[in-house]
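User: Run a structure prediction on this.
Assistant: Running it now.
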Amino acid sequence: MEVCTVGGFEEVGKNMTALKINDDVFIFDAGLFLPPVIEIQETEPQKPGQSYTEQKLRKIGAIADDTILEKAGWKDKVRAIIIGHAHLDHIGGLPYITHRYPQAQIIATPFTMAFFNALLEDNRMVSKNKQTILRGNSSMKIKGQSHEYTLEFIHVTHSTLQCVLCALHTNEGVFFYALDYKFDNYPVIGEVTNYKRLREIGKQGVKLLVIEALYSGMERRTPSERIARNMVEDAFSRVRKTNSAIFITTFSSHIARLKSIVDFGKRTNRKIVFLGRSLNKYVNCAINVGECSFKKDIMMIKYRNQVDSFLKKLNSERGKYLIVCTGHQAEPGSILDRIVNDETPFKFMADDNVIFSSSVIPVSVNIHARDKMDKKLMRKSVRIQTDVHVSGHAGREDLRDLIEMLVPKHVIPAHGTLQQETPLIELAKEMGYKFGETAHLSSDGKFMKF
């Protein structure tokens, strides 16, 4: 069993891992590294319908350097590209690399595949690769050069729809890919994690576990989304003035959070309007796979000229609408960013409300941008509620639970910087693993043999 930790082992995002067994290679995830994309948007903003080229994204380091697979002789042996869920740091690079692996099928859940196709359409790109839908708690056979493999998707809770952990059953044992997850026993949408199957796979024998480490230094179990639902309800209850504007912003991919926003937003007796292309994209994907129970309760506005026209109307009718919009990370060009910077017909006034149902992604560009946005809002005397949110990522105790269930022979932390991955190594050592022998710190582009 050989592994190439292509990307996501030195940063938060750009996730990609390649596994080689015999003469067969499998790629897990193909994500974007978002900070350089956010930075370039400030100097080279995209026009609607325009996308950055593969060459540009590689130049700024937004895509994992999978060209190393070609140099190693792995490129033409790739049988499948397997995507665990529909977040950009796991799937955003996929449209730009599929042409390099025409022989590889793309395997994902219905929602994740719908989002991939929406990305292609949005960027006016085409993928000729075979697409295979695999639902959570299901498995399929993949024919290799001389062996047959079984890929299994185990349903897990996270902060978007239809997320899975991936187990590839091989003649060398099980390779297990666990990016990303949390153990939520009270999910707002969908089932709880399939703990029973995880324990069964652990008894069969896992050779190698690649596991997210983003919050491995946090001494906690990550709270349920039910807690965030209560926080959203509470946040709306604190909005006092009926004639002030109410904006709420969250991750566009977080359909369960959007459901809570709509459920409790209806109590304000305002029309609920979703603004922004990203929200439109994710919600439409949820509608297309039958996972959007609130579609009749909202109005969606996508295009910039329509958004600006609506914001002009909102300026004089701010008590009639509840606005759900993009911009919680203060991303350049997002709805909230443009409003705060006075680039739209809507102007914030004293006692207007902005609710951030999100956390700041822990990278410097986001932290700096949100700090600037918050200060601008405060100067306008806008009432702000921040961190109306619980994470979708495993804390230290959730990581311990998964390792105890799977009992892998080897562990590699992923999805973080060295600083974020080191606590997981410490946890593994606490559980009896030996650093350098059974617990391994890797880096982008490193090859390892087990």
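The two ends are 5 Å apart (CA to CA).
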